[in-house]
Amino acid sequence: MRYKIVYDKPGRIRLRLGNGAFTDEEGYGIAHMLYKNEGIVSVETTAINGGILVNYSDINARNFVLEEINGLKYGHIPKGEPSDDDLMREIDNNFQWMIFSVIGKHYLRKWFLPWPVKAGITICQASKYLRAGLQSLLKGKINVSVLDAASVTAAVAQGTFSTASSIMMLLNVSGILEDYTRKKTRAALSSSLSINVDTVWLEKDGNSVQVPVSNIRVGDIICVRSGSVIPLDGEVVDGEALVNESSMTGEPLAVMRTKESSVYAGTVVEEGTLKIRVRALAGNTRIQQIAALIDTSEDLKAQIQSKAEALADLIVPYSFAASILTLAFTRNVTKAISVLMVDYSCAIKLSTPISVISAMREASSYKIMVKGGKYLESFAKADTIIFDKTGTLTEACPKVAKVVPFNGYDGNEVLKTAACLEEHFPHSVAKAIVRKAEEENLRHREEHTEVKYVVAHGIASTLYGESVIIGSRHFVFDDEKTELSAEEEKRIEEESDGYSSVFLAIGGKLAGMLCVEDPVREDAFEVINQLKALGIKHVVMLTGDSDNAAKAACQKLGINEYRAQVLPENKADMVKAFKEMGRTVIMVGDGINDSPALACANVSVAMKEGSDIAREVADITLLSNSLDGLVTMRKLSAAMLRKIQRNYRFIIGFNTMLIVGGMAGIIQPTVSAFLHNVSTMGVSGLSMRYCLNDKNETEK
Hints:
This protein is of the alpha+beta class. The protein contains 25 helices and 24 strands. Strands 5, 6, 7, 8, 9, 10 and 11 form a seven-stranded antiparallel beta sheet that branches. It has a seven-stranded mixed beta sheet with strand order 12-24-23-22-13-20-21, sandwiched between helices. α10 packs antiparallel against α23.
């Protein structure tokens, strides 16, 4: 492909291929192709003139760019999807062009067209506002469209075409600014959302190999097992499983997916195993759906946002009534139009959702993903926080202290079998067992059959024709009825003191016990104290561990209330009990077994190292390993509510001043419209600012 180098300095090169050399989609494909070289810092493509701007870090990357462009052929350029930076740049460019177009057309008509032509164009444009206003009235609504129609029509009827034209120009600019603000905020939020999957199991030469998800290509076959999220869109080529698609469809019940079924990124395999041929690599579809859901779903809106929208609609008729009264008492159309040009609705309806979405975007900058505005509000108002112990209040990296074999089994054999079962599940204790096997150089081949996670602290499978189960004491001995002699009971008590214990049974008999050290997180004590200082009145810990282990952990953490040897369904019941007491409850957990309780809470939080199902069920996910995100969330959500209240006070005060000024004849309609729109955009712009940048907000 022919091109011209129009700029070439160290670290930066600009090529021009000419108009029509490639389309927008092909430009994205070129950028994706160039990003394969690690030395490429950024790529911008412009289809209008065939421009390609590349920033790079070394000379080899520059040579790579020229070689790749040389190798392209017209009509055979790969197509691609826009990156987050591309989308943001397009929004900015479209906004600039639209603003320039509206203002430019207005002044060109004003300066160069004769009066009759200007009047005709003004009347034609005014008819659009009149039509929109009449449509609202026919639906029984008195809203902003009615106010705009009335003000423009009144100006035209009065013969002040220049005023009417200026009003419409300001209204157009206001609409463009509102649209730009929404798109910019939503795009920024969208770019912060992603499916939290780093590695996948790739089927290669008949074996499953764990590789980074970035290494996967279209057509590769990946294996997704029970409890794991499906990371990429694709088609099932083998296996069957129940897949929870609530993140895509909203339906709570899992659906069966078999060979030739389509599956989508972000859904979760609840039970079974699927081999999937990857169809699409980009997570854009999933991300866009999350953003759209956050933006439009009434269920996910903050209550304060819904109240703001209701208040805004309620105020409009009063603004209209004030204009009519002004006309009735003053007989001055100009004063009445000045009043019409001001309403509270625009600023309230625009600034409140922007405040909410901006807070969600700010949360993402702290590596916190929030699925809806209502969860921010609930977090700010919560008075009770319930923690799961293992992997949440304790270190994300527990260690196997010792392996105790029973019934003639060898310790290495116990550890190897346990690791083979646990490696498919992301709970912190499971990872500790797998890590211990690696440290002991024990290779645990998959000689068992289908692995099934039972949501009651356990895993079940079959090995050499015998049942194999691993899990908590309750699961292994009470639920699965594994034999336990008095001697074994005594030895368990002696060996497990001070540890969390995981039991392995083979063929209905105890094969071994793995004792796990689970030290509390270094930051947990300070985080709990800060949450108490920020208004959390009740801190509770729930755990399936023994009472002694739970009590020892609470003493270190400064927690006064705990429940030990708790089953998953009991956790959910406890959350419900607190809610029935009138409390607003935050539930923090990380395991599949925490999912019922997470679903029951007013607002739920999952840890980064938690299971895929826990992260999918949770309303908020901490994407860092620290509990500090809970403190940040409390401060941020409270600051968001304070910001919205400040916006209310300003909007009501400033717009009331404009209305009074219009009634008194101090402010003309065009000035009133200008100040109203500027204030609306000003408060919206301030709503986009981060809440915790201000030192005072951070300290609160």
